[in-house]
Design a protein that fits this description.
Elements: H1 4-25, H2 31-44, E1 49-51, E2 54-59, E3 62-69, E4 72-74, E5 78-83, H3 90-103, E6 107-112, H4 118-121, E7 123-126, H5 128-131
């Protein structure tokens, strides 16, 4: 059974993987490099990942291909958006919330590798799909 605790435990492992990649590489590289290393680290920890998933947009009873893609989906539950930017812009948070809504996923993590401390810049997000799960 999928519970809030189960999802939070996976999220904890995901953040641990991001910290490991950051510890090995440090800040200042391209997002694509971090993504490859991050996915490798997730796989080493036994987590199932899917990358660059196309997100269909449902508009007025029709699904439109809008070339919208998320970075990483972990265990088919948690969307991870990776950044390598100076600061987290509110638009990135809105984007993650929208991805969560469109794919009906309960949790998302916004991780910025261009930082001194992954956990301080981490943005975890949940939605109504998370709130209805048992604890």
């Amino acid at each position: 059974m999928i519970t809030q605790t189960y999802i939070n435990n996976i999220a904890y492992k995901i953040v641990g993987c991001a910290i490991e990649v950051h510890k090995e590489l440090g800040p200042g590289l391209l997002e694509s490099i971090y993504q490859r290393c991050f996915v490798k680290e997730l796989e080493l920890k036994g987590l199932k990942t899917t990358q660059q998933i196309k997100i269909p947009v449902h508009y007025k009873d029709e699904y439109l291909d809008c070339n919208l893609r998320l970075d990483v989906l972990v265990e088919d539950l948690i969307i991870v958006e990776l950044k390598a930017v100076e600061e987290i812009h509110p638009l990135y948070k809105a984007q993650l919330l929208t991805y969560m809504k469109l794919l009906e996923k309960p949790k998302g993590l916004l991780i910025n590798f261009n930082t001194e401390n992954i956990t301080k810049s981490l943005v975890p997000m949940v939605n109504e799909h998370f709130s209805v799960l048992p604890k």
